[in-house]
Amino acid sequence: MNYETVLTTCTYCGCGCGLLLEVLDGEVVGTLPQKDHVINEGGACIKGWNAHEFIYHEGRLKHPLIRKDNSFKEASWEEALEVVVTCLKKIKEENGPDSIAGLTSARCTNEENYVFQKWMRAVIGTNNVDHCARL
Amino acid sequence: MDKTREKMKRMLEEKEVSAILALRRNHGHPTPFLFTKAEELKDWVADEANRYPLTKLLIKIARKHQSDVIGIIVRGCEERSLVELLKNFQLRQGKVKAIGIACSQELANRCRCDQPFPSQVEEGQVAKPATDFSDLEEIEKLTEEDRFQYWMSQFGKCIKCYGCRNICPACFCPTCTLEDANLIKPGGMPPEIPIFHLHKAYHMADRCIDCGLCEEACPMGIPVRRLYRRVKKSVKDLFGYIPGEKEDEKGPLEFLGDGSYELPGAGK
Q: ipTM of this model?
C-alpha cells in the first residue's frame, strides 16, 4: 500500500499553479491544488483540477506518426526526425527561412521554449516564433 | 505533538493499522501522505495553515485496500466528515481509526468553528468554540431584492472550476449530477448561474460539516461557505439535525420518513 502526493507545476498555461498529483500504488489517481503555493494559494481552474486525466487517456500520442497515403502511420523517432529535417531543409532552400514559422507550447518548460526559439533563430534563421498560450 | 507521534508509531509497529493518512513535510511543504513505516513519521506535520481534504482522499485508498485498517489524523471538522462518510457507506466501520488532534485557538477563530476539536485528543489544549454567525446576520439584514442581487453578483464571478465540489469531503457521489450526460450534455455549456450553486447547497444541506474547504478552494473568492452555513442552519431549525454529530442518525433528506417532516400540502 503506497499513497503519496507529488509536488508539480501545472503545464496548461503560463500562470504556473502549484499542483499535487495523487499517486496510489504507482498510478496517478487525482490532482489537488497546492495550498501553500504563492501563485494559486490552494485554488485551480477546471483544467488544473483535471490535469492528471490525460496521463492514461486512450487518445494520448505515445509514438510519432507520419502521414502516408492520407493516413497516419506509427513511426520511430529516427524516421520522424528524418522527415522533419528533409522537409524543413527543402522549404528553406526553395523559399527562404522566413517561409517557416515555429509554434511552441505551454506544456513545455520555460527552458525548452527558450531552446526552441533559439533554434528557430539560429538554425532556421527566422524570427517567426510564437507560443500557444498567447490567449 | 510528540505524544501523537508516539501513538502513531505504536499503532504502526503493533500493526493496529496498516498505514496512517496525514500530512508530511515534502520539500518544505505540508502535503498528504500515507505513512506505512514508523521511521517515516519524523516528517509528519500537524500543519494548521494548510488543510487538505484528508477524509475524502481516504475514500480512494480504502476502496482499493478494503481489508486494511487505515489510521487518519483528524481535527474536529475532519472527524465530523468521517461520521458522514461512514454513515453514507463511503468508508467501512472498523476499517478506519481516527487519531484526534486539537486546533489552536487561532485556527478555531479563523475558521469561526463551533467545535474545533475531535471527540478524543491525544495532547494539547482544546480551543474554545468560536461560534460566529455575523457573516449570516450581516446578509440577512438586507432586503430580499438586495440579497438576491448580492448572491447573483457573487455567483457571477464563478469560473466553473468546480473546486468547491472537488475538495468537499461531503461531496462523494460516484456519479455527480454535473457528469451525468442525461442532465448536462458533454461538450455543451455548463449549467447557468445560479443552478450549480443552489443545487450543491441543496445536496449539502444535511451533509455539510462546515469545514470551509470549499471557500478556501474558490479562486474567485465567492463566500460559498456562507451559503452552506445558511442551509445547514435551516436543517437544524427545521429538523433539529446536525450533520457529523451522531453516527446512528440518518440525515433528514436521506429517507422519506413518517410524514412528520412534510411541509403542509406537499405531495398530497
A: 0.89
